[in-house]
Amino acid sequence: MTLVNATILLIEEESTLLEITAFRLELLGYQVVKQTSADDAASWLSEYVPDLITVGHVAEMESLEFLNHLSNDERISEVPIVFLSASTDLEEVQRAYNAGADEFLVTPYDPLVLEKKVEELLHASRV
Q: What is the pTM of this model?
């Protein structure tokens, strides 16, 4: 159940993961805005509010610190966030949730799991 015209901000420094994730989400009918750095994402977010954000690896600061920054921004604090990480460490998973992630996906991820989590978060945020 894709929500037509939902905009997803995809923040990921690693180009292959960025392109694969964007391609998958675009196939599902979402409008995807790709950013490769925290600075570029913050600049884009100063003008726009997406329906969902995915945060992967960003270079300028630790990804969890950036996630915390997003959660503390009043304009976007209600936007669901999916955190992408190569780590399976339970402490990092917990830190991601504590920093504001609504979902956590270990990369490489199953595309069907990504699809399900995105659709559930978008649906819940619109109810």
A: 0.92
